[in-house]
Amino acid sequence: MSFTSKIQQLLALLNSCSSLKHLFQIHAQIIISGLSQHNCIVLKIINFFASHTPINSSSYAGFVIKQSHNSSNSWWNILIRRYATCHKSSYTEAIRFFVEMRRVGAVSDEFTYPFLFKACSSFLGLEEGKQVHCDVIKIGVCNNVYVQNTLIHFYGSCKKIVDAYKMFDEMSPRTVVSWNSIISACVESCWYYDGVEIFRVMRKCGVQPDETTMVVLLSACAELGDLSLGKWIHGQVIEQGMFVNCQLATSLVNMYAKCGAVDYARLMFDRIGERNVWTWSAMILGLAQHGFAAQALELFWKMKDCSVKPNYVSFLGVLCACSHVGMVEEGHRLFQEMESVYRIKPMVAHYGAMVDILSRAGRLEEAYKFIVHMPIEADAVIWRTLLSACHIHDISDYTRVGEEVRSRLLRMEPKRSGNLVMVANKYAGNGLWEKAAKLKRDMKERRLKKIAGESCVSVFQNP
């Protein structure tokens, strides 16, 4: 067999390779054939590691690259990039590849570090990221704008906003990605108004924002419920003449819906040419949360008619809608459909919505059994939902569900004054004055005070 034919045969075998065991066998043939240094063959092996994500294979990958006698770090960068951007179980493997890369003497560069910081951000590896940051300083690429941008994102993801801002402050020059990274870091850490203030500074510096900037800012407005600020950001989008893509349009729908301006949200939704599942879900949830249950359900059916597969947010919205209109059986059917038809595993919020459906309908014993048999532990919010329903539908506690829920809630959160006040008021309402007085004495002895109610008024001001 000729040299070229042998290479083609080995490449064909590598193309058909489907397991790590199979790869070892083929690689043995490559070594016997004396082709372990051939670049095309090494690249195929590297691509196998990159596409099949065999965990804990960094040492073997190091062996393959070392045998190739190619000191280039490009092979390593391919692997690190792949593992840093694929399934969450492989993020730490990107770090292992980096360690192996340094162990065999390969030199990292400015293309290595952005993906390492991305991997550290993904699994919140603060200590690992700091060590990589030290390495960045050692080899002298700390002034590379791409490395700096990913460092800001990394520290922001780990909620180290001061460190993220220090990195940003030391940057020169800054790109729009740099500004987006620090604004996003603030918003993700709930420093919403700080993010908006940085945007104002960005505009004063003459930097043109892009669609990503506006998406991040709109998410901050949605979390704050600040409609006037959200309208100002929308005005900036119009003023800049930005193309309103699907992601930006969805953010606008979400912002208006969460700020209570459901009419504006629906107007935006109806004008969107391209909608994805997140656009539909934002509108459905917005309608459901503000009492437009019938419209939310109608939109959910319309979404399915348009062949858009619902996601976990869609189901949360539609379950919330069922709760408001008392559609218990329909709500239960949709809850079952989540996992059986769409393979969406219910989260705590979905179980909470189902408990709310049963509780509002006065089916207290059924709601209690549902909570007890949940595959995940119910949080205090779910128990409080049922307890509130007991105070409405079973004032005298004939079912004894209320007493059981009260005892569970007090064991779960013994220091939460709101729970004690709720229970004491219930006892007082039923004429159980001694029990109510005892709870209030306990609160006084433990220096627990009732948290005062709060309300806020938005005074118009020009952002």
From TrEMBL:
Key word Transcription regulation present: no
The protein's matches in Gene3D superfamilies, at most eight in alphabetical order, are given as: Tetratricopeptide repeat domain (1.25.40.10)
Q: Which UniProt keywords apply?
A: Repeat
Q: Name one GO molecular function term.
A: RNA binding
Repeat region (PPR), residues: 175-209, 276-310
Entry's InterPro entries? E_motif, PPR_At4g14850-like_plant, PPR_rpt, TPR-like_helical_dom_sf
Which terms under GO biological process does the entry name? RNA modification
> Keyword Cytoplasm: yes or no?
no
- Identify this protein by name: Pentatricopeptide repeat-containing protein
